[in-house]
């Protein structure tokens, strides 16, 4: 296996997940003048989609590496999410997909991001929940997925489960969540081949897998009958309450709704 370039990996991530993401975002009722920020914008499909939906608003795409963002649509900001310091009440939507679980200060970022919302504004966090490798249908899948997780040291691939409670602790209401199984295997939605291809050199260098593991993994993925669910992608969102005079909440409820 050869390493894939980051652009291909980001594009693959987008094409496998954008439909799910916009299914959530389109349900939030954003106005055409909404101000939005996408944290860890990658190759920019979410930011671009928000520009289309909010033509009279403002969309900021933040990333450490802005080389995959074209800058002609959203406003591009090269920055570390951990260092961001937007004014309170700057946004109607703060969105972060597949990035916060990798940050050491993820809990603090959630609290900080909630403070950037205007009343009625939404914070939407999407991250993977990694299912136990030992439940994989084949030993080679278990070995590869365990190795991949070890390579992500510093990331927490089960952190997303805590996000509903973090949103509640940050004072948000109307907390909801939905999930989508991430497909591994010979289907259009597979997003593992590019991830493992890109990780292959590091996995080999650290002795976490062998060339023969990678070859077997690769051949499994193209078997017509093979399909597996190594992770579930969870999207979680909540909104900043509107406060009436006397600090009474006039819309928004702490009730949590589930959508599966
Ligand atoms: C897995 S990609 C996800 C990209 C995009 N959110 C998506 O879902 O298509 C993670 C992105 O977050 C960016 N990133 C990682 N750590 C970051 C940080 N501390 N500050 C800003 N961006 C960061 C990476 O450069 C990369 O573009």
TrEMBL record:
Q: What class of enzyme is it?
A: transferase
One annotated GO biological process: methylation
Q: Which Pfam families match?
A: Methyltransf_11 (PF08241)
Q: Which UniProt keywords apply?
A: Methyltransferase, Transferase
Alphabetical list of SUPFAM superfamilies matching this protein:
S-adenosyl-L-methionine-dependent methyltransferases
EC?
A: 2.1.1.-
Q: Does this entry carry the keyword Transferase? A: yes
Q: Where are the transmembrane segments?
A: none
Tell me where in this chain the Methyltransferase type domain is found.
37-125
Superkingdom assignment = Bacteria
GO molecular function term, any single one: methyltransferase activity
UniProt-recorded name of the protein = Class I SAM-dependent methyltransferase
